[in-house]
Specification:
2 domains; 267 residues; 0% strand; membrane; 16 helices; transmembrane helix; mainly alpha
Length: 267
């Protein structure tokens, strides 16, 4: 089409969709390479206005998802709710997996002679796995972007950890209440202090190595200790969860939290 240009009438007919198919194809091919002819095309002002309005609605006023809405209704600030709602997909998958694992542990506790061991082994580790998948490079696709925000670092880690602990503790407590030997509130929370101590230990170890690796090491040590205790002949590793041992778990948790606060202030 070298040397050929649209006339105002041809441009008007094309814009009004009155051109035949061959002419329309020629006009479209020519407009791709001819800026002067593109200026002959009448602009649809209403279409442009609607397009910009839709764009501003998406960019300037993004719609909140259900999780962000619930967090805002719970009293969290808008920026905190948005940050917590933007959790990694691995963490979201962990919530579903947790329900399946706890359901399997309950079935095993009711139908197998030593089925309660499955819950005893897994309940303290459930929050630990969630922490490993809720923060850090390699598990969060948006970690690079989040790391340069004002809420990055310790604050973001704390928020993500809390967002894991709350649903994990609720799910584990609900499952513990359905265990066959649960007769009191103590029977439903015997695992709580050990679980919190494991999470605190992984967060402290995560100051030197990747958080996922730290959680894996702490979880593996926990399972190894319980495995050795179970092999000693006890039906349930009572010694690790006995009331006397809870005092030591509390002391350990307090010490780990103190070290975490100290490291956070000196970082």
């Amino acid at each position: 089409m070298s040397g050929w240009h649209l006339t105002p009438a041809q441009a008007h007919d094309y814009a009004a969709r009155r051109s035949d198919e061959i002419t329309a194809m020629s006009v479209e091919a020519h407009l791709m390479h001819c800026a002067p002819c593109r200026t002959l095309m009448p602009a649809d002002e209403q279409w442009l206005a609607d397009g910009w309005a839709s764009l501003r609605d998406v960019v300037d006023r993004p719609r909140r998802g259900p999780v962000e809405t619930l967090l805002s209704l719970a009293g969290l600030r808008a920026e905190t709710a948005k940050l917590l709602a933007a959790t990694p997909r691995l963490y979201q998958a962990w919530l579903g997996s947790t329900v399946v694992v706890l359901a399997a542990a309950l079935v095993a506790a009711h139908v197998m002679p030593r089925g309660s061991l499955m819950f005893v082994f897994l309940a303290p580790v459930v929050p630990l796995v969630g922490v490993a998948l809720a923060y850090g490079r390699g598990v969060d696709p948006a970690h690079t972007l989040a790391s340069v925000t004002p809420m990055a670092g310790q604050r973001l880690l704390f928020l993500r950890t809390c967002s894991v602990l709350v649903p994990a503790l609720l799910l584990c407590t609900g499952a513990a209440l359905l265990l066959p030997y649960t007769t009191s509130a103590w029977d439903a929370v015997f695992w709580l202090l050990p679980s919190l101590a494991l999470v605190a230990g992984s967060l402290l170890l995560g100051r030197w190595i990747h958080l996922s690796a730290a959680s894996g090491i702490v979880g593996a040590l926990w399972l190894a200790v319980l495995g050795l205790v179970s092999l000693s002949g006890q039906t349930v590793p009572v010694g690790v969860f006995a009331p006397a041992a809870q005092l030591w778990w509390g002391v350990l948790l307090s010490a780990l939290l103190g070290l975490l606060l100290l490291r956070a202030r000196t970082a």
